[in-house]
Amino acid sequence: GSDAIGVLVMSYGTPESLDQVEAYYTHIRRGKPPTAEQLDDLVRRYEKIVGGFFPLRRNTDRQVEALQATLDREYPDLKFVCYQGLKHAAPFIEDGVRAMAADGITRAVGVVLAPHYSSMSVGGYVKRAQAAAEEVGVAMSFVESYHLHPKLIEALADRVRRALKKFTEVDAEEVKVLFTAHSLPERILQMNDPYPEQLLETSRAVAERTGVTDWQFAWQSAGQTGEKWLGPDVLEELERLHSEEGVDYALVCPIGFVSDHLEVLYDLDIEAQALAGKLGLHLERTEMLNTEPLYMETLADVVRGKVVEAG
Ligand code: FEC
């Protein structure tokens, strides 16, 4: 065995080329292939955001490299080795766990590149990693959420401050701030899932830190699955705010995501911007964290916390 501590860095995953979109979409749908129409629609959305590469692929690589460098710098007395484990693309979560075992690693920490816990998001990653770890004999513990970490809040607050400066035509107080995250089926509410409350906690903390008082939370990117998803949806909310409350300036801050990818580059930058254009509303978006040092330090800190806890 190795005395190194494995770090399984888990992320959503993305195709690496347009011809992989079908397999990727089928995996998201738990093996059920999409209809031709659904597939066309997704391919079209990807075509609009991929300038020769899939942004999430490159961003995940960079985040994992940056986390490794941060762990090495911050905790030189511990030897961490990072591995990628993706939910819907290779290297899959199970591949990452097996790679650790093949390198002789016997203990590891799992962390997801998403700050908020839901049984349907982070819970799903953890379940798969735990099952794979048991099979190969790696002792794993998991970071479940880090949505109120002071460095995360500071990094988000900094982005809100910078984005508010883009509204040169009005005072910052006249801008409505909308914090957003990926919607989930409404049935998570019956399961007492902490996801909605954690998202509100992050929103509140960032608003307090920036002195923003005119803010609310909205959901985005809901799936088309027939069942009811959490609302209000950000698009409907922008429309309502404009028509009912006369809102002409809005800043979207997607706190549920940490990287530039489809749900941000298409759903917000193309779809929501098109709506804003139609309404005559000035809409801006905060920059994503990507390899932001404060975010990397957040991850390094919570990973090390798990090692200390395990003794
Ligand atoms: O850039 C990219 O290639 C990937 C962007 C991407 C991220 C992401 C994050 C989350 N999702 C979450 C939940 C669901 C549920 C369903 C679902 C479906 C999709 C589809 C695509 C997709 N998601 Fe995703 N998600 C990303 C991409 N997601 C593409 C399929 C087509 C569509 O609906 O647009 C519904 C599954 C079903 O059909 O049963 C549920 C959650 C997150 C945020 C947490 C995380 O990152 O894990 C929650 C990034």
TrEMBL record:
Entry binding sites for Fe-coproporphyrin III: 12, 29, 45-46, 125
Catalytic activity: Fe-coproporphyrin III + 2 H(+) = coproporphyrin III + Fe(2+)
Listed SUPFAM superfamilies: Chelatase (SSF53800)
Pfam family of the protein (one): Ferrochelatase
Any one GO molecular-function label of the UniProt entry: metal ion binding
Biological pathway: Porphyrin-containing compound metabolism; protoheme biosynthesis
E.C. no: 4.99.1.9
Locations listed in the record: Cytoplasm
Cross-referenced CDD domains: Ferrochelatase_C, Ferrochelatase_N
InterPro entries documented for this protein: Ferrochelatase, Ferrochelatase_AS, Ferrochelatase_C, Ferrochelatase_N
Keyword Iron: yes
EC category name: lyase
Residues annotated for Fe(2+) binding in this entry: 182, 263
GO cellular component term, pick one: cytoplasm
GO aspect biological process, one term: heme biosynthetic process
Keywords assigned by UniProt, alphabetized: Cytoplasm, Heme biosynthesis, Iron, Lyase, Metal-binding, Porphyrin biosynthesis
Family (UniProt): Belongs to the ferrochelatase family.
Role noted for this protein: Involved in coproporphyrin-dependent heme b biosynthesis. Catalyzes the insertion of ferrous iron into coproporphyrin III to form Fe-coproporphyrin III.
Name of the protein: Coproporphyrin III ferrochelatase
